[in-house]
Every structure is written in C-alpha cells, then in structure tokens.
Amino acid sequence: MEGRTKFILLFVIAQFVGLLAVLLMGIWMGKYLGGFAWYTGSPTKFNYHPFFLTLGLIFIYGDAILVYRLFNTQNKLTIKIVHTVLQFAALLFTITGVQAVFSAHADTGSANLYSIHGWIGITTVFMFALQFTMGFFFYLFPGVSDSLKTWYMSAHRYWGVAIFVMAIATALIGSMEEVGFKIPDYNTRTAQAYVVNFMAMSLVVFGWLVTYLVSKPEYKRDASGYANMDAQS
Ligand code: HEM
User: Fold this and answer.
1) What is the structure's pLDDT at 231?
2) Long-range pairs for 185-192 at CB < 8 Å and ≥24 separation?
C-alpha cells in the first residue's frame, strides 16, 4: 500500500480505537459507577478523573503528536498552533482530572499519593507540564536561535512519546486499582468487566498506532524543504 494511504488508514483506525477508549471509559464511569457530579462530598466527583485523563492526556495528546504527520505538507506555523492548542486542551483536562481525585480525597479524608498509580501518575503529569513549558519557550517564544531549537528537538520528541506511553501505563494501572475498589465480582466476567477490558485493550491499540505512526521516518513532513524546518520547530 502506498505510504500516504497507509498512514491515513492507520490514522483513521487510531481515531476509532482512541474514541472507543474514551467512550468505554465514559460508559464505565457514567453508567456503572454512578455518573458525574462535582460538588463538595459528591460520591461521583472522582469519576471525572479517569474520564478527563483518558480524553486529555491520552486521546487529545496522542492526536497532538500526530498532527505534524497528518498535515505533512501544510504551513508549519499553522500546524504548530494546532499542536499547541491541542496540547493546551490536554493540559487543562489533565489538571482538572487530577484536581478531581485530590478534591474527592479531601472530601473523604483519604490519603494522597500512596499507590504505584499515584506515584507514576504524578510523575507523568509533572513531566507533561515541564514538556509543555519547555516547548512553549523553545518554539513559541520569539528570539530563540535555530541552533537551540534544533538542539532541543530530539529531547522534545523523545519525551513527548515517553510521556504518552507513561500516560497509557498509568491509566491501565489506575483501572486495575479502580476494579479492585469497585468491582468485587470482576472474576465472574460481568458486562462491566467487559467494558473495562475492552477500554484497556483500546488504550493499548491506540498506543501502538500512535507510536508506530510517529516513529516511521517516511511519515515525517516531506523532504522538499520541510524536513529541515522540522528539526527546528
Ligand atoms: C493518564 C492517566 C492518569 C494519570 C496521570 C493519573 C494520575 C493520578 C494521580 C496523580 C493520582 C493521585 C491523587 C491523590 O493521591 O490524591 C491518582 C489517583 C487515582 N487514580 Fe489516576 N490517573 C490516570 C488515570 C486513571 C484511570 C484511567 C483510573 C481508573 C479508572 C484511575 C484511577 C485512580 C484511582 C482509583 C486513584 C485513587 C487512588 C490512588 O491514589 O491510587 N486513574 N491518579
């Protein structure tokens, strides 16, 4: 199959499985775990946490990674703005989603940051905030030299993908923790268990597709002058 056709096909499949993961997470939280309501003492305030993180730090973030590959011949500045807007949306969902669990814990007097999920999760969020800030200063702030932009680009690329992989791993660990808290009959293969397992599988497939599409050199911005600019911004 021709390179561009294959890219588009895999990109569309990625959208499908990514949205499926968000939808199934929404069904798990919305239908099986009581829905969404944010007020002091709300038993369902926590539910914003998994939903916003899956939507923001996995789905939107994954697409933000892919926009340079999707619009591989369009004006670089426009794509840079799209990338930034998507990352900013991901950041807002991430902050609100993490705030939901801290606030839910404060309401009930529960402990914070005691679990593997909490430790890896807070590290991922910190790395994302740092990556966003560094990206902003290196690539949107006026006056940074091209050589400095090129120097930072390989770190920005590596950490961009590493944070995405960490986000998926964190969501999988968090889901198992939530299963332990909320689904005592998980081993009897209830409908809820299938929703959770298909959601988790969708996250993994979305992770495969995004990392595959971003790692293939042939899907980079085309060689006719763009590749060079790519290294700088
Ligand atoms: C990228 C995705 C995610 C990140 C970065 C993340 C991050 C965090 C952080 C930092 C905490 C600690 C909050 C505190 O100690 O008060 C936390 C707690 C929690 N998260 Fe997540 N989370 C993610 C996704 C999920 C998902 C998908 C679920 C499950 C459906 C989940 C379930 C939980 C649970 C049950 C807690 C409370 C218990 C604990 O602190 O481990 N998380 N998460």
Assistant:
1) 43
2) 192/28, 192/32
Can you tell me the mean pLDDT for 33-44?
A: 98
How far CA 110 is from CA of 7, 118, 134, in Å, comes to: 46, 13, 34
Backbone phi, psi, residue 232, to 5°: -95, -25
> Among residues 198, 226, 178, which one has the least CA distance to residue 79?
226
Q: How far is the CA of 97 from the centre of ligand 1 (A)?
A: 9
Q: What are phi and psi of 142, to 5 degrees?
A: -70, 150
Residue minimizing CA distance to atom 17 of ligand 1: 118
Given this model, what pLDDT does residue 221 score? Answer: 77
How far apart are the CA of 214 and the centre of ligand 1, in A? 27
- C-beta 213 within 6 A of ligand 1: no
Tokens 């789905």 locate to: 59
If one compares 120 and 218, the residue with the highest pLDDT of the two is 120
Q: Compare 232 and 87 and report the one with higher pLDDT.
A: 87
pLDDT category of residue 222 using cuts at 50, 70 and 90: low
pTM score of the predicted model:
0.94
Atom of ligand 1 nearest to the CA of 125: 5
Report the CATH number of the 3-232 domain.
1.20.120.1770
Interval between CA 68 and ligand 1 midpoint (Å): 30
